[in-house]
Design a protein that fits this description.
The protein is of the alpha/beta class. The chain folds into 2 domains: 170 residues, Rossmann fold; 81 residues, no CATH class. The chain has 11 helices and 10 strands. The strands form 2 sheets. The protein has a 6-stranded mixed β-sheet, sandwiched between helices. It has a 4-stranded antiparallel β-sheet with strand order 2-1-4-5, with helices on one face. The chain binds adenosine-5'-triphosphate and magnesium ion. Adenosine-5'-triphosphate binds next to β2 and α1.
């Protein structure tokens, strides 16, 4: 089944074609990586899919429902959740509070029962406490729970943005360069967590990442953008042998991967 599907989406900023006619399908349960040189349109594609931008042309479908132009919070509540290339979490709150904010998007108790402090709300609070606990452990943040976000190491901040996204209960998690700025140990932890998000939780993953070793090792499929257009799509070994892809990356380190 298709989780996310774009049909000929384009995004123009004035005369600049940031994304041009991109049709891409993310299948349920897969890890699909979106790669491409700087400025290729990867983040813009994320913005189009998640409602932060409305495409100039084309259509976006999530779980076979059209979501083109819907606001981000509506798309997120349907189960499409993304992280940002730059950390955008609240520096002055604790780790635990930040994750709790993610849950607010997914609260099941009705407004009436919240207002009256009824039983559904207390049940909901209990449920959230349990899930919060599990999520902090899952993302390796349990020891940092009381720390202010601004005081935790950068790698933990990146992990926190994943924890916040998971707290909203996504079906599709879209990660925009999650390994940027991580050291080798943190990168290994990240790979492990991405595999477990898909394996243990059954969440589909769309990943933008410049670290080729990382994407080749964890992706089921890869898609390549270059100058806003989709250049290639296929299995990691096909992509890393594709001459057009190697050409697009020449001088950018990709040839190292194709040579093993
Ligand atoms: N809001 C905007 N207004 C104008 N131009 C934009 C805007 N957002 C992106 N662009 C331009 O669109 C093009 C694609 O940018 P985008 O951020 O999508 O690339 P990217 O593939 O994510 O690159 P990187 O790997 O550097 O993150 C670039 O030329 C960029 O300058
Ligand atoms: Mg980007």
């Amino acid at each position: 089944m298709s989780m996310l599907r774009s049909e000929n989406v384009s995004m123009y900023f004035g005369g600049l074609k940031a994304v041009e006619n991109v049709s891409l399908e993310v299948r349920e349960g897969e890890i699909l990586s979106l790669i491409g040189p700087n400025g290729a349109g990867k983040t813009t594609f994320f913005n189009l899919a998640s409602g932060f931008l409305t495409p100039t042309k084309g259509h976006v479908y999530f779980s076979d429902k059209e979501v083109t132009g819907l606001p981000p919070h509506v798309i997120a509540s349907m189960g499409l959740v993304r992280t940002f290339q730059k950390t955008n979490i609240f520096a002055e709150v604790s780790v635990e509070e930040s994750v709790r904010i993610g849950f607010n998007l997914h609260r099941r108790a009705s407004l009436g029962s919240i207002l009256t402090g009824g039983r559904a709300t207390r049940d909901e609070d209990g449920r959230i406490a349990g899930v919060l606990e599990e999520l902090l452990a899952f993302t390796g943040l349990a020891d940092w729970r009381k720390a202010l976000v601004k005081n935790i190491p950068y790698g933990k901040q990146r992990m926190l943005s994943i924890a916040i996204a998971l707290a909203t209960g996504p079906k599709l998690l879209m990660l925009d360069e999650p390994a940027t700025g991580l050291n080798p140990v943190e990168t290994k932890e990240l790979i492990d967590i991405i595999l477990r998000i898909r394996g243990d939780r059954g969440i589909t993953i769309l990943l933008i990442e410049h670290n080729m070793r990382l994407v080749v090792s964890i992706s089921d499929r890869m898609a390549v953008l270059s100058y806003g257009e989709k250049l290639a799509e296929g299995k990691p070994d096909e992509i890393s042998r594709n001459p057009a892809v190697i050409e697009a990356y020449l001088g950018k380190g990709f040839q190292n991967v194709s040579q093993g």
